[in-house]
Here is the input.
Amino acid sequence: MKIVDAHAHIVEPRVDYPHGYTVEDLLRDMDSVGIERAVLLQNPTFGTMNGLVRDAIQAYPGRFMGVIQVDPMDGEACARIARYASPLQNTLKLELSEDWGWSGKYPDISLLDDALLAIFDTVAGLGLRVIIDPGSVGGKGYQVENIAQIARRYPRTRFLIEHLGYLTPPQRTAEGEALWRNMIALGRDHDNIFFGLSAAGSLLEEPYPCEGSQELIRRALATVGEDKLLWGSDIPTTFKRYGYGQMIEVVTRGCAFLTQRQKEKIMAANAEKFFGWA
Here is the structure.
């Protein structure tokens, strides 16, 4: 089966990753489990790495797509997006989580802020996609209605909500489940909203084969359909819990409710279509 990892990271050396996780490390691990292509994401905690991502794409043609990251409150954000945008670096990542992202730095940030709307205007003008990590259910970045408004305002822009709605054990309450269902329902109600599956098991703090996240996949599939879900790993941080092959097998072997066609879409075809990968 063709496999595309729609959510992977490379990391420059730092205190918690003394040797980093280079593009060569990623390629080695991809090849070891038969992953054909990957999308390189960024995260504010690891720093902005637009140039590193661009260089990796150029060094290994055909293996990678990449995203752009900017501080959304930086006055030069729109100019930086335009500077790095290319056919293979064609997506903006907005990390809204409090622990990892912009809601931690800017507690009152809203997707409807003038600065964010200017960014979305730039994205739409350049024909880019947007990945949103909303952070955990009920957090400051979990802006379900704002995402809906943005999706309606920019109907030709594709939005990918990450981590399958970011449900964690403390949020597995009646209220938290309701908020999660509202987030997933965005993919049913809006043609341009999709969901990434990355790290769903890790966020639930469950062991392989991640039966809880398999159930979330089943529920999401019933809500949004087989064309709206994209598999990804979120490596290297997820290596703390699972092997690369195990993360693949959660879907390919574990989700018994999926047909072969659905698995092929979730594991590769949906990502290729979303990112415009020929």
In short: The chain has eleven helices and eight strands. The chain has a mean pLDDT of 96.
